[in-house]
Design brief:
4-stranded mixed sheet, 49% helix, globular
Amino acid sequence: MSELRYEILFHFENVELVIQEPERHILWVESVISAESKIAGNLNFIFCTDKYLHQMNVDYLNHDTLTDVITFPLRYDRVEGDIFISKDRVAENAKTFDVEFDAELRRVMIHGVLHLVGFGDKTEEEIALMRSKEDFYLNSF
């Protein structure tokens, strides 16, 4: 049996952004997927503007709101999909919560991964579990 090959990639849609230590981020995402007993597949992190992500939210989800992350699963037999992240929202959230930009960026990244793993955030119970998982995995970075 051959080993499953996949890639975790970073893309930038009209934004200037440098991911510090990209290899470390990739290993971290892989470790989270593994810790949740899931199989990693191709993941694309697409960093974009509020305007870009807002239009995606309207076009694909019928939500006329700003958001920091939208996740589109591509497969369900492994953790594979596209995670769109607004650099603008991450910067605003970082100011609001008085955290470093890079820390907030990782929170939003892992939030998207956790959605692909199967966690939701619609009910109070789901939100509490999601926050707990985010905090746990942020501490493992």
